Amino acid sequence: MKKLTLFGLLLAATACQRSFYVARQQSSRLSVDATVAADSSTLRWLAPYKQQLDATMNAPLVTITERLEKNTPESALDDLLADALLAQAGKKYGKTIDVSHLNYGGIRNGLPAGSVTTGNLFEVMPFDNQLVVLTLTGAQLMQFLNHFAANDNALVVGGVRVRVHDKAVTSATLTNGRTIVPDQSYTVAMSDYVANGGGGADFLKTVGGRDNVNYLIRDALIDYFREQGKAGKPLTPQADGRITLE
């Protein structure tokens, strides 16, 4: 009887519920007036957090001798960032990395001449992309290089020198001395965006050898620049000709 009574009460309550529907929609534009005075109490509450954030973002990492911009088929900035990722990925992964790759479209700013800060690196790499290490066969590695070379020669890589003709790779040589053999395995450090098929690289979705490294690409760059800064010498990056158009 108790179960039946509770069930009956539930039915009665459900039957008495009112139903609602949208009768009318209305919208209006709210303008933000920059001349309105800031709320002083809010500013006081935010002040310590802003000071801490400013101290972090304005912290100098290293000095470079001239402003750097990305460019195709290659630039000093492209090479510097790719080499930084190659070095830090190897340390974090704990194993040798053969090739590093950065998505050209993901590089959103250049680096200023003089002191380079943490904030500058956030401007260069604003996205929270994670480091992924894929193990590719030599055939897959060549497919990977060809894919990004075909994309307006936007190939930002470390650990490899590539010759390109009509947006197709004619030769690729690893700088660690290894030869690219179709059925051998090679480790490639890249962002999770690309590893997940971003930039049209859908063929990477089926790659079996994948290690997700808990390390932001941006943090890898920050750590590299900080380590370089500790040496006390300014960086003088130069494009080294790793991408050759024939």
From TrEMBL:
Gene Ontology CC entries for this record: outer membrane-bounded periplasmic space
GO biological process, one term: nucleotide catabolic process
Domain 5'-Nucleotidase C-terminal intervals: 67-205
One annotated GO molecular function: hydrolase activity
Pfam families named in the record: 5_nucleotid_C
InterPro entries per the UniProt record, alphabetical: 5'-Nucleotdase_C, 5'-Nucleotdase_C_sf, 5_nucleotidase/apyrase
PROSITE patterns: PROKAR_LIPOPROTEIN
PANTHER family in the record: 5'-NUCLEOTIDASE, 5'-NUCLEOTIDASE-RELATED
Protein's UniProt name: 5'-nucleotidase C-terminal domain-containing protein
